[in-house]
Amino acid sequence: MTGDGTRVVRAGLPEPAAHEPALPGPVFAAHFHLPGEAAGPYTYGRDNNPTWTRLEAAIGELESPGEPAHTVAFASGMAAITAVLFSQLRAGDAVVLPGDGYQLLPALRTRLESYGIEVRTARLSTDDRASTSAPHTPVDRAHDARPDVLDGARLLWIETPSNPGLDVYDIRRLADAAHARGALVAVDNTLATPLGQRPLDLGADFSVASGTKALTGHGDVLMGYVSTRDPALADGVRLWRKTVGAIPGPMESWLAHRSLATLALRVRQQAEGAMALATALADRPEVTGVRHPGLPSDPSHALAVRQMRPGRFGCVVSFVLPDRAHAERFLTALTLVDDATSFGGVRSTAERRARWGGDDVPEGFIRFSVGVEDPEDLVADVLRALDAAKA
Q1: 52, 102, 181, 235 - which has most CB atoms within 10 Å?
Q2: What does the similarity note say (predicted)?
Q3: Closest CA relative to residue 204, chosen from 240, 151, 160
Q4: What is the chain's mean pLDDT, rounded?
Q5: Peptide bond into 164 cis (omega under 30)
């Protein structure tokens, strides 16, 4: 079994051929030569493209090494998310969405309900106990009137670590509970990346991610994907992509594949920097609510250690400053950090998350994405900006 660093460098590449590039360039084609019957690997640009094929094969190797997986690439993370939901749900079905997930989930809930789909929102339990014979509910009942929101559900959506709260949820336990009730399970694996966590190995039916973030890592590509080991589920997702036309461009697909080669290096450097930053922030009196799964004091640390790959707890650190004005002074004082949304890029970014209005966070809540800068330089810049923000 090869290591992750070796796998990301070789994933999805064609067999070596004399005088040909290791990673062929993007194929720009709306149509392909198609004599005779309308069949073959490449027929029309909305259906498939050789550049997608290589990227999808590469991601499949990362999400499911050693066991075949089917990956479908999309034009964005939201395109991937909606493909899973709308390819699997019909009017009268029920879906369970997390109560603390990505900010567009409430808008998605409204759309699902308009199509006659019942949406149950629940804050998943962060109880990190291993499965035992002792009874425990897989979701927090306080967030839903039903005694068990999974009863009769068609699909359970899990986001772990959650964005922006960074709670970690037990995929194996929740997947077992959902499957026992006949529900499918999808996991948003964006923050962890397949090098930090493999949902399909933990029982999930779908691993979904925004490749815009850490997977591509340079802040210049919009991309999403869905991976599954079930060919029938993959066919449904692929048909949805074809039907709505949510296809990635060949240049974006090629850039994404090119970027995979440095994923292991970036993940390792970002995780080191995030730990250094979280540790430094924990000692600041004006900073509260520091969250990072790698911190031994973090509420999710014990589960993260068991579920995620060692030392790969993600690049995001969240914390709270006293108020909106304090947070904005801090962001303005930073010199090595861009005030920008998204996360997972090689350049560190930070933002006052409440400015978007879609997350249940305090006005001074900061979501900080650690890049690949030297941790010592980044921590020094943050501490200096914190000192300046106190004025």
Answers
A1: 52
A2: Belongs to the trans-sulfuration enzymes family.
A3: 160
A4: 92
A5: yes
Which of 215, 209, 246, 211 lies closest to 228, judged by CA? Answer: 209
What domains are defined for the chain? 4-260 (3.40.640.10), 264-389 (3.90.1150.10)
Residue 166 has pLDDT above 70, yes or no: yes
* CA dist., res. 48 & res. 248, Å (int): 10
Residue 24: which of 2, 61, 63, 53 has the closest Cα? 53
Q: Position of tokens 């997390």? A: 98
Q: 18-28 burial, b if ≥16 CB within 10 A, otherwise e? A: eeeeebeebbe
Spatial distance between the Cα atoms of 15 and 343, rounded to a whole number of angstroms: 34
Where does the pLDDT of residue 381 fall: very low under 50, low under 70, confident under 90, or very high at 90 and above?
Answer: very high
* Burial call 276-313: b when 16+ CB within 10 Å, e when fewer: bbbbbbeebebbeebbbbbbeebebbebbbebbbeebb
* Burial classification of residue 357, based on how many CB atoms lie within 10 Å of its CB (0-12 exposed, 13-18 middle, 19 or more buried): exposed
Q: Is 90 exceeded by the pLDDT of residue 99?
A: no
